[in-house]
Amino acid sequence: MNPIYAVVWGVVALFGVTAVYGLVWAIRSGQMRDFGRGALSIFDDEEPVGMVTDAFPGGQTADGETGDRS
Amino acid sequence: MNRAVFLYVGVLLTVLLSFTGLVSIPEKQLGGLQPLVDADGTQYPVPPTGMVAEGRGVYIADGCIYCHSQQVRPEGFGDDIERGWGTRRTVARDHIYDSPPLLGTMRTGPDLANIAVRQPSENWHLLHLYNPRITSPGSNMPAFPFLFRKVPVEVQVPHDALSFPPGWEVPGYSVVPSRRAKALVAYLKSLDHSHPVPEVPQ
Amino acid sequence: MNAATSSDAAPAAAWRAEVDASCAYPVVAFFVSAVFWLLFGTVLALLASIKMHTPGFLSGAEWLTFGRVRPVHLNTMIYGWGSMAGVGTLLWLQARLSRVRLPLQLPLVVGCALWDLGVAGGSIAILTGHGTSVEWLEFPYGWSFLFAGIFVVVMAASLMMFSARRVGHVYVSQWYLFGAVLWFPFLYVMANALIHGALARGVVQAATNWWFAHNVLGLWFTPIGLATVYYLLPKVLGRPIHSYYLSLLGFWTLALFYNWAGTHHLVGGPLPAWLITVGIVGSVMMFIPVTTVAVNHHMTMKGHFALLKVSPTLRFIVLGAMSYTVVSFQGSLQSLRTVNEVTHFTHYTIAHAHLGVYGFFTMVMFGAIYYIAPRLTGREWSSPRLIKIHFWGTALGMAVYWIGLTWGGILQGLAMDNPDVAFLDVVRHTMPYLWSRTFAGVLMAVGHVAFAILVWRMFTLKGRRLPEPASAPVVAMAGGAQ
Question: Which helix (H) or strand (E) element contains residue C404?
Answer without folding.
Answer: helix C384-416
